[in-house]
Amino acid sequence: MRRRAPPVDEIRGTANGTAPVPLSVLDLVTVGSGRTATDALRTSVDITRLAERRGFHRHWVAEHHSMPGVASSSPAVILAHLAAHTERIRLGSGGVMLPNHAPLVIAEQFGTLEALAPGRVDLGLGRAPGTDGATAAALRRSDRLSEGADEFPQQLAELTRFLDDDFPDGHPYARIHAVPGPVQGPSARPPIWLLGSSGFSARLAGVLGLPFAFAHHFSAQNTVPALDLYRDSFRPSELLDAPYALIGVSALASDDEREARRQVLTGALSMVRLRTGRPGLIPTPEEAAAYEFSAMEREFVDSWLSNVIHGTPDAVRSGLDDLQKRTGADELMITANAHGGDARLRSYELIADAYDLAVA
Question: What is the mean pLDDT of the chain?
Answer without folding.
Answer: 92
